[in-house]
């Protein structure tokens, strides 16, 4: 059985005068330890689908299951990382990182030590007593990653977590997140508008069409790229070939809207 499954998922948004179909008949599966990316034109329902996976929305049709159960019963297995870091500005970095453990009632001397050692691992040693305003954007996103990983989630949902960063910082964080997820064998779903990011980080890419949102095509990343770091992937000929193929498909979808 696959770790994450979406079976004929559909979702509608209702207003007093209209119904908008955000998703229609979306089905796919993700194996444990796999990294997939969702890309597509604006309005194709990527973030809606991520919210359904997180248990924040209940689909109108179909179902999502994580390890055989609905997301709302598996929230302790899910970590969510967003474009904004959402660190509490009045709390220190250490307090921010430990907040998930406190909410889950799983804060122990051992879990605290593990969380703080992870902080050191991602290059934030010595910032524990600082406040978010004292850190750069890239450092804040690393702290947000540490907070997400502190609760030891099995599934990470990443909603454009690097899009607000400068290009160099973005590439460094892509490498960091890729290496962390591979070393901890985490399953991940990334929503992004960046084709290069999707290719360099993923095992598979799901390209969505819009109006309504649906899976248009699935791209499997070649083996020669999958085991390289994102920065190295971007220098390979196979990367440029796949980028061009996906770009053309995406352009066609956008012209059809």
Features:
globular; Rossmann fold; 257 residues; 6-stranded mixed β-sheet; single chain; alpha/beta
Could you give a short description of this structure?
The protein is an alpha/beta fold and 257 residues long. Helices cover 38% and strands 24% of the residues.
Helices, strands, pairings?
Layout: E1 4-14, E2 19-30, E3 35-39, H1 46-53, E4 61-66, E5 78-81, H2 93-103, H3 109-121, H4 137-150, E6 155-159, H5 167-183, E7 187-191, H6 195-201, E8 204-209, E9 214-220, H7 223-226, H8 230-233, H9 237-256
Could you explain the architecture of this structure?
With 257 residues, the chain is α/β, with parallel strands linked by helices. The protein has a single domain (4-82, 155-256), classed as P-loop containing nucleotide triphosphate hydrolases (Rossmann fold, 3-Layer(aba) Sandwich), CATH 3.40.50.300. The protein is built from 9 helices and 9 strands. Strands 5-6-7-3-8-9 form a 6-stranded mixed sheet, with helices on both faces. α6 packs across α9 (237-256). The longest helix is centred in the last third of the chain and has 20 residues, at 237-256. The mean pLDDT is 90.
Give the topology string: H per helix, E per strand.
EEEHEEHHHEHEHEEHHH
Proportion of residues in helical segments:
25-40%
Tell me the CATH superfamily.
Answer: P-loop containing nucleotide triphosphate hydrolases
Shape: globular
- The fold-level CATH name is Rossmann fold
Indicate the CATH class: Alpha Beta
Strands in their spatial order, largest beta sheet? 5-6-7-3-8-9
